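ugh ok fine here u go
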Amino acid sequence: MPVASFDDLYRAADDARLMTPVAVAGAADPTVLAALRAACDRGWVQPIVAGREIDVRRTADACSVSVNGFEFLDTEEPASAAVAAVCSGRAKLLTKGQIATPALMRAILDPAAGLRTERVVCQIPLVELSAANRRFLMADTGICIQPTLRQKLDILQSAVELAHALGADCPRVALMAATESVMESMPETLEAEEVRRRWRAGEIPGCIVDGPLSFDLAFAADAADKKRVGGDVAGAADVMLFPNLLSANLTIKAIMYTADCRFGGVLCGARAPVAFMSRADTTTTRLNSLAIALRLASQRSRQMTEV
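structure:
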């Protein structure tokens, strides 16, 4: 099965109505407040807002968004306060609001008071292109600048786990490069070959891995047919694992701003899911990210119960 659509995720969150406590770092922004209001009204979340309360309330008044039912953590350090709420168990999710990524990442990765684990923290968005009837995850689009082979394997594991949470029993993973040929002059193709070797050896369970593959081959079945590239992943990738932040970020931004698509993203590798995209996001994209984070949190909760 492919990964879930945003409509699927919205229906699941609407039906569950868990009112999951979510800590929000930086809510003095109209799109952040509108998304929190909508998610609260739908029964998705109970917002715990970290930041200067006077600024949040002033912004809410200016954009006519009610903050009734919101809990406030009045602080000059919204990132640290929001992370602390998750660490204490007061909140189950973390959401990036109108706050710079470095400030939030410092709080998340703080060795004493953060959400760090032994896993690599990475950003994984879900992209949905209705016209092409395609949905896929992309990693890592926002955090790890030049991942090592070990880090790529870790990011791959997080992406596969997220794909499982989104309903793909055996996600198809494309190891992205500019070409499907393995070339000494392109180190990312050599690493892709090594990752694929490890998958064939049974070291990467729960998925199908192929690569190196260029974007057209990972995305479009007709491109794979024309170039005579076979396999289960070509033209049908559920996960695209990029060689570095540059290639991943340029690709996701190009899709976001030029294609008719829906998207949202989360941070994986931390102790709790983090709804995490750009400060320039719309209200809808923030809701999309929350829907993904809620599904991931629900999956983790089920796994802990089963253990």
